[in-house]
Amino acid sequence: MTSTRYAIPVIIMLLLALVPTTIHSYLGATTDDGKSVKKIPRQLDDFISMPSKRNKQWGRDIFESFDWFERDYRNADYKKVRLFVARSFNHKKLYHHAELALSYAINLSHHKIGKLPGQNDIPIHILTNDNHSIVVIYALEYDNHFIDNPITHQLSESMRLLINPRKPMTLFYASQTGISSNVPAEQTAAMTLLSLAIQNFKQQSPSPTR
Protein backbone atom coordinates (compact mmCIF):
# COMPACT_ATOMS: atom_id res chain seq x y z
CA MET A 1 0.00 0.00 0.00
CA THR A 2 1.39 3.40 -1.02
CA SER A 3 1.69 5.96 1.76
CA THR A 4 -0.10 9.28 1.24
CA ARG A 5 2.24 11.04 3.64
CA TYR A 6 4.15 12.81 0.87
CA ALA A 7 1.29 13.12 -1.59
CA ILE A 8 0.76 16.87 -1.19
CA PRO A 9 4.49 17.82 -1.44
CA VAL A 10 4.87 15.57 -4.50
CA ILE A 11 1.82 17.11 -6.17
CA ILE A 12 3.20 20.62 -5.51
CA MET A 13 6.59 19.69 -6.98
CA LEU A 14 4.93 18.21 -10.07
CA LEU A 15 2.84 21.33 -10.55
CA LEU A 16 5.93 23.52 -10.24
CA ALA A 17 7.72 21.37 -12.79
CA LEU A 18 4.85 21.93 -15.21
CA VAL A 19 5.28 25.73 -15.09
CA PRO A 20 8.40 25.98 -17.29
CA THR A 21 7.13 23.19 -19.53
CA THR A 22 3.87 25.04 -20.08
CA ILE A 23 5.54 28.41 -20.60
CA HIS A 24 8.17 27.25 -23.07
CA SER A 25 6.74 24.15 -24.74
CA TYR A 26 3.04 24.82 -24.96
CA LEU A 27 2.65 28.58 -24.79
CA GLY A 28 6.00 29.36 -26.42
CA ALA A 29 6.13 32.54 -24.36
CA THR A 30 8.75 35.03 -25.55
CA THR A 31 9.31 38.76 -25.31
CA ASP A 32 9.60 41.18 -28.21
CA ASP A 33 11.73 44.28 -27.62
CA GLY A 34 11.00 45.70 -31.07
CA LYS A 35 14.61 45.57 -32.19
CA SER A 36 15.76 43.83 -35.37
CA VAL A 37 19.19 43.16 -36.81
CA LYS A 38 17.73 43.70 -40.28
CA LYS A 39 17.36 47.37 -39.37
CA ILE A 40 21.16 47.66 -39.34
CA PRO A 41 21.81 49.51 -42.61
CA ARG A 42 23.62 48.08 -45.58
CA GLN A 43 25.96 51.08 -45.38
CA LEU A 44 27.76 51.82 -42.13
CA ASP A 45 30.00 54.88 -42.34
CA ASP A 46 32.22 54.18 -45.38
CA PHE A 47 31.43 50.45 -45.39
CA ILE A 48 29.07 49.38 -48.18
CA SER A 49 27.69 45.85 -48.25
CA MET A 50 26.31 43.12 -50.42
CA PRO A 51 24.29 40.20 -49.03
CA SER A 52 26.04 36.85 -48.81
CA LYS A 53 24.87 33.82 -50.77
CA ARG A 54 23.34 32.02 -47.80
CA ASN A 55 19.81 30.83 -48.41
CA LYS A 56 17.02 32.30 -46.29
CA GLN A 57 16.61 29.15 -44.21
CA TRP A 58 20.29 28.75 -43.27
CA GLY A 59 20.29 30.98 -40.18
CA ARG A 60 17.15 29.36 -38.85
CA ASP A 61 18.51 25.86 -39.39
CA ILE A 62 21.96 26.49 -37.85
CA PHE A 63 21.17 28.97 -35.08
CA GLU A 64 17.39 28.72 -34.69
CA SER A 65 17.43 32.41 -35.51
CA PHE A 66 14.23 34.29 -36.27
CA ASP A 67 16.12 37.47 -37.27
CA TRP A 68 19.51 37.33 -38.99
CA PHE A 69 21.67 38.47 -41.90
CA GLU A 70 25.12 37.89 -43.33
CA ARG A 71 26.70 40.59 -45.51
CA ASP A 72 30.07 41.32 -47.07
CA TYR A 73 31.10 44.90 -46.34
CA ARG A 74 33.91 46.85 -48.04
CA ASN A 75 35.28 50.19 -46.93
CA ALA A 76 36.93 52.98 -48.93
CA ASP A 77 40.27 51.14 -48.69
CA TYR A 78 38.66 48.03 -50.26
CA LYS A 79 39.05 46.06 -47.05
CA LYS A 80 36.43 43.33 -46.94
CA VAL A 81 34.70 42.25 -43.73
CA ARG A 82 32.04 39.59 -43.41
CA LEU A 83 29.40 40.57 -40.86
CA PHE A 84 26.91 38.09 -39.42
CA VAL A 85 24.31 39.23 -36.91
CA ALA A 86 21.59 36.99 -35.50
CA ARG A 87 19.04 36.81 -32.71
CA SER A 88 17.82 33.59 -31.17
CA PHE A 89 15.91 32.37 -28.14
CA ASN A 90 18.20 29.34 -28.11
CA HIS A 91 21.20 31.06 -26.54
CA LYS A 92 23.52 28.06 -26.73
CA LYS A 93 23.16 27.95 -30.51
CA LEU A 94 24.74 31.42 -30.64
CA TYR A 95 27.43 31.30 -27.98
CA HIS A 96 28.67 27.72 -28.27
CA HIS A 97 31.55 27.91 -30.79
CA ALA A 98 29.75 29.99 -33.39
CA GLU A 99 32.99 30.07 -35.37
CA LEU A 100 32.59 26.38 -36.21
CA ALA A 101 29.60 27.24 -38.38
CA LEU A 102 30.62 30.71 -39.51
CA SER A 103 34.36 30.17 -40.13
CA TYR A 104 34.30 26.50 -41.02
CA ALA A 105 37.64 24.74 -41.60
CA ILE A 106 39.68 27.73 -40.41
CA ASN A 107 42.03 27.00 -37.51
CA LEU A 108 41.39 29.86 -35.09
CA SER A 109 43.73 28.60 -32.41
CA HIS A 110 44.19 31.86 -30.47
CA HIS A 111 41.38 33.25 -28.35
CA LYS A 112 41.20 36.16 -25.94
CA ILE A 113 38.58 38.41 -24.41
CA GLY A 114 39.00 42.15 -24.70
CA LYS A 115 36.93 45.32 -24.73
CA LEU A 116 35.40 47.11 -27.68
CA PRO A 117 37.58 50.19 -28.28
CA GLY A 118 35.96 53.24 -26.74
CA GLN A 119 33.24 51.15 -25.10
CA ASN A 120 34.70 49.41 -22.08
CA ASP A 121 31.29 48.07 -21.03
CA ILE A 122 31.23 45.78 -24.09
CA PRO A 123 33.36 42.62 -23.86
CA ILE A 124 34.44 41.08 -27.15
CA HIS A 125 35.89 37.72 -28.12
CA ILE A 126 38.89 37.85 -30.47
CA LEU A 127 40.02 34.75 -32.38
CA THR A 128 42.97 34.56 -34.76
CA ASN A 129 44.91 31.93 -36.67
CA ASP A 130 48.58 31.19 -36.02
CA ASN A 131 50.02 34.00 -38.15
CA HIS A 132 47.22 36.46 -37.27
CA SER A 133 46.29 36.91 -40.95
CA ILE A 134 42.68 36.01 -40.11
CA VAL A 135 40.71 37.63 -37.32
CA VAL A 136 37.24 36.94 -35.97
CA ILE A 137 35.67 39.29 -33.45
CA TYR A 138 32.30 38.70 -31.88
CA ALA A 139 30.09 40.03 -29.11
CA LEU A 140 27.01 38.66 -27.35
CA GLU A 141 24.15 40.88 -26.22
CA TYR A 142 21.27 39.95 -23.93
CA ASP A 143 18.64 42.23 -22.43
CA ASN A 144 20.66 45.39 -23.27
CA HIS A 145 23.83 44.01 -21.67
CA PHE A 146 26.91 42.42 -23.22
CA ILE A 147 28.26 39.11 -21.96
CA ASP A 148 31.87 38.03 -21.50
CA ASN A 149 31.21 34.52 -20.16
CA PRO A 150 28.07 32.98 -21.67
CA ILE A 151 28.26 29.85 -19.53
CA THR A 152 28.20 31.89 -16.31
CA HIS A 153 25.40 33.97 -17.80
CA GLN A 154 23.34 30.89 -18.62
CA LEU A 155 23.78 29.46 -15.14
CA SER A 156 22.90 32.74 -13.44
CA GLU A 157 19.79 33.11 -15.60
CA SER A 158 18.67 29.49 -15.39
CA MET A 159 16.10 29.93 -12.62
CA ARG A 160 14.63 33.06 -14.15
CA LEU A 161 14.46 31.39 -17.56
CA LEU A 162 12.47 28.52 -16.08
CA ILE A 163 9.47 30.64 -15.17
CA ASN A 164 9.67 33.76 -17.35
CA PRO A 165 9.14 34.30 -21.06
CA ARG A 166 12.35 33.92 -23.02
CA LYS A 167 14.36 36.89 -24.24
CA PRO A 168 16.59 36.73 -27.33
CA MET A 169 20.36 36.78 -27.36
CA THR A 170 22.09 38.65 -30.18
CA LEU A 171 25.37 37.61 -31.79
CA PHE A 172 27.53 40.17 -33.63
CA TYR A 173 30.25 38.37 -35.63
CA ALA A 174 32.82 40.03 -37.90
CA SER A 175 35.60 38.22 -39.77
CA GLN A 176 38.44 39.51 -41.94
CA THR A 177 41.26 37.83 -43.87
CA GLY A 178 44.52 39.01 -45.39
CA ILE A 179 45.62 41.06 -42.38
CA SER A 180 49.27 41.95 -41.86
CA SER A 181 50.72 40.12 -38.87
CA ASN A 182 51.80 43.38 -37.20
CA VAL A 183 48.29 44.89 -37.20
CA PRO A 184 46.54 44.34 -33.84
CA ALA A 185 42.93 43.18 -33.90
CA GLU A 186 41.86 46.45 -32.29
CA GLN A 187 42.98 48.35 -35.41
CA THR A 188 41.38 46.12 -38.05
CA ALA A 189 38.46 46.95 -40.30
CA ALA A 190 36.58 44.07 -38.66
CA MET A 191 36.76 45.81 -35.29
CA THR A 192 35.59 49.09 -36.78
CA LEU A 193 32.63 47.50 -38.56
CA LEU A 194 31.62 45.46 -35.52
CA SER A 195 31.60 48.62 -33.42
CA LEU A 196 29.44 50.45 -35.98
CA ALA A 197 26.93 47.58 -36.14
CA ILE A 198 26.66 47.34 -32.35
CA GLN A 199 26.26 51.10 -32.00
CA ASN A 200 23.47 51.13 -34.59
CA PHE A 201 21.65 48.24 -32.93
CA LYS A 202 21.88 49.82 -29.48
CA GLN A 203 20.34 53.04 -30.82
CA GLN A 204 17.23 51.30 -32.06
CA SER A 205 14.18 52.37 -30.10
CA PRO A 206 12.73 49.39 -28.23
CA SER A 207 9.02 48.82 -28.13
CA PRO A 208 7.19 48.14 -24.86
CA THR A 209 7.79 44.54 -23.79
CA ARG A 210 4.81 42.33 -24.36
Strand content: 25-35%
Average pLDDT, to the nearest integer?
Answer: 86
Helix content: 25-40%
Strand count: 9
Structural class: alpha+beta
Q: Low-confidence runs (pLDDT<50, min 5 residues)?
A: 13-27
Number of helices: 6
Order of helices and strands: HEEHEEHHEEEEHEH
> Mind summarizing the main beta sheet?
9 strands, antiparallel
Rg on CA atoms, Å:
20 Å
Cα shape: globular
Descriptive account of the structure:
With 210 residues, the protein is of the alpha+beta class. The chain has one domain. The chain is built from six helices and nine strands. The protein has helices spanning 7-26, 58-63, 91-95, 99-102, 150-163, 189-202; strands at 43-44, 47-51, 65-74, 80-88, 110-116, 119-128, 135-142, 145-147, 169-176. Strands 1, 2, 3, 4, 5, 6, 7, 8 and 9 form a nine-stranded antiparallel beta sheet that branches. It is globular and about 70 Å long. Mean pLDDT is 86; it is low at 13-27.
Looking at this protein, list some descriptive labels:
alpha+beta, 210 residues, single chain, nine-stranded antiparallel β-sheet, 30% helix, 9 strands, 6 helices
Sequence-ordered SSE layout with sheet pairings:
Elements: H1 7-26, E1 43-44, E2 47-51, H2 58-63, E3 65-74, E4 80-88, H3 91-95, H4 99-102, E5 110-116, E6 119-128, E7 135-142, E8 145-147, H5 150-163, E9 169-176, H6 189-202
Antiparallel strand pairs: 1-2, 2-3, 3-4, 4-9, 5-6, 6-7, 7-8, 7-9
